Amino acid sequence: MLNIPKVFQLCLFFITIYSVEVKADAQVIEVSGEGIIEVAPNNFTLSLTISERGRVPDKLKASVDKRSNIVINAAESIGVKEEAINSARVNLRVVEEKPAIELHGVEVKHKFPSTNTKPLKGSVYIDSNEISTQKYEKQKPTLFELTRRVTINFSSIDDYDKFLTQIVKIRVNHISSLSMTVKDSNKLYQQALTQAISQASQKASVIAKHAGVTLGKMVYLKELSNNHYQPQYSMAMMAEDSSVRHRSLTGTNKIKASVIVKFAIN
């Protein structure tokens, strides 16, 4: 038996282990997979604002409440339930009024007495701070603005269209853009994730077949996405609308899932 120094034996031991790890790491097929589920939005949220300005807060609230009740009644008349309506957000603020005339200063021509026969001519400049003192200004009652925000959830886009037809007749100050989401998006994402893993397995099988090797079990799986949405509008749905009355089009949402998978090679 050869007498090999211990230091050399130790170095040879580490080299052997390192070579095995590199070889084991090379005996895998790494692929990516993507799954896509297309679904139309089925939950619609609309927010609108009703506001009024005046100097008596009680009268403002009565006016805003009256118009808010008309909005809520319009929603309930098309089948929207009370739990789908939120009208509790009210805001009252003081409106700062600018003066009708802003006086920055006045220059007055004046004749000053003189020892000569002719008086001296000159001018006097009066600063606006000396003119607009509080004791000369007439105090006006405070101007208020009261605002109520109403948020309504619709289960169908047709209900939204019906509501919008009624609401334009009411004096609403602002209507926000319609928010469109998908219910049970987590379940749909799980379906997309299953598709992504299945696609990765198919790709790995094709690669193994062309490489002349046998595909083994899955040894690594990494999820790269997290319930990712990508809105997309359907041209086909737009082409179907030929009626005179406008019908809102929702398009579709793409729910994507992507993974990285490694398979062992037998």
Automatic annotation (TrEMBL):
Pfam families: SIMPL
Source taxon at top rank: Bacteria
InterPro entries: 26kDa_periplasmic_antigen, SIMPL/DUF541
Biological process (GO), any one: DNA damage response
Name this protein carries in UniProt: DUF541 domain-containing protein
